[in-house]
Prior knowledge:
Layout: E1 20-24, H1 39-54, E2 58-63, E3 71-74, E4 80-83, E5 93-103, E6 106-115, H2 117-120, E7 125-129, H3 137-140, H4 151-171, E8 178-182, H5 188-197, E9 205-208, E10 219-221, H6 222-228, H7 236-243, E11 249-251, H8 252-259, E12 262-265, H9 268-278, E13 287-289, H10 296-299, H11 302-310, H12 313-335, E14 344-349, H13 365-373, E15 377-382, H14 390-403, E16 409-412, H15 417-426, E17 429-432, H16 444-450, E18 454-458, E19 473-476, H17 484-509, H18 514-526, H19 532-544, H20 548-559
Parallel strand pairs: 1-2, 1-8, 2-7, 8-9, 9-12, 12-13, 14-15, 14-17, 15-16, 17-18, 18-19
Antiparallel strand pairs: 3-4, 5-6, 6-7, 10-11
Amino acid sequence: MLKLPQLYTYKVNEDYSTKVAYFSMEIAIHQALKTYSGGLGYLSGSHMRSAYDLGQNIIGVTMLWSYGYCDQGRDENRNLKIEFIRKYYYFLEDLETEVIVKINGHNVWVKAYLLNPETFGSAPVIFLSTDYDRNDYLSRTISHKLYDKDENARIAQETILGIGGVRVLEALGIERDIYHLNEGHALPLAFELYQKYKENLKKHIVFTTHTPELAGNETHNINKLYKLGFFADLNLNEVRNLTEITDNNFSLTVAALRIVKISNAVSALHEKVANKIWGKYKDISKIIYITNAQNRRFWVDAILLRYLDEHEDYELIARKKHLKKILFEEVADQTGKMFDPDILTIIWARRFVDYKRPDLLIRDFERFHNLVETKKVQIIWAGKPYPFDNGAINLFNHLQTISNNYSNVAVLVGYELKLSQMLKQGADIWLNTPRITHEASGTSGMSAAMNGAINFSINDGWIPEFLIDGVNGFMIPADASKPIEVQDEEDNKNMMDILEEKIIPLYYENQEDKWLTVMKNSMRDVNPVFDSGRMAHEYYTKLYDYDTEKQQNQEYIKEK
């Protein structure tokens, strides 16, 4: 049996002695470990890195996806080609531990692997897999693809993560005080733990909600969940009593909010939106906010950061141009286009999904064309559509087709950690265009700002806590009260007006080094408030060590 001290190659800090298991469907630790799709994975990866930096007593639990999320390439027409290529990870340690989880009444074996903290500088992470020869083919496919399109497969994945994760920890003799649900995917762990903790269950589970739209939170038929084994060994009466869900539409988020001792949204604005959405449900936990952040050690170019305060401005400018050149080598390699490091470079790069509006820049196409024809800007799009979302894939290909007509517009494939880092280090403007109130946090702009990219953004997610228009970035005014079509039209106009009248003149005229001042303000303001060391610390002080009974007593005294 693997004992707990062997998991930690670093000394655990006494300030973070509470023993935590952090469950996430995806964790993006390193380019070589492709077990993530996008923002949720990037966030959890930064959390694990900062837990290592701070010496926290936390262990990650996630799935080992044999085929990852998907691999992006191009077909013969340069359109997006989605492939599923099997991955192998020889740097993971086989823990020689197996547990059984029942899926649809069938025994499925779950094998565990360890990512050693020293491999990539992270908290220890346990990876779960069903894809080995002890299982039949159907059982093996459970851990094949992240976010499988089949509903039954998705439920099975969540069941393996939640129940299998708890059972693996127990089999390894790893005791935990707190189990952290990073989104509702691992909710089955609560039903497994109920048999151990009974009425004290709430004291041991916390929950982070990331999705600020009701429709984006998973709901399944409760009978289907029961049949597939989602509720461990509990019967439906026990599940209904525990979650207070009386109909057959079982919301993972509502159940999580009722089962845990405390929950958090991922930005100050998201806290308001989350409480508005979920506050109508009785007996939910308190929802506070802990704003997302990114790990500076991983994301930032150390030389650029050092030049911020310790060298002459011309050296900072020269380093930024060098980083642009590195990115432009990738652009040339993928597209055959030679970008110029002296030209203002605008980048839109994140998950391809409708509410993020990757096409807002081309909404008024004539205006977009005229802007690009001036040769005063270079534009890059990158991002991964969900591999089974034909609408998002078609939009990606539409942008690719448009880019074929311009030497200064590019669409890049292979949007994973390495390319994401290159884009953030090479961007002058980091464009963020979600429909307002739809973005819970949107952390990509944080790591971009760390690298001297100036945020040009809708005032959503983390942005209201950071951006001061004209001082450390540029704000796109938006009105959530208007119909979507009107929002899109007005947001496009406002964006293009600011780009043409403020941003482009400031970049090229740079009177009294004003562009450089905004860039330096952005770099200084984002550090350290949006470094994930702050976030990882707050998870301990505000969530893991939160005392529900003490808080209730304080609130009672305050009322009196």
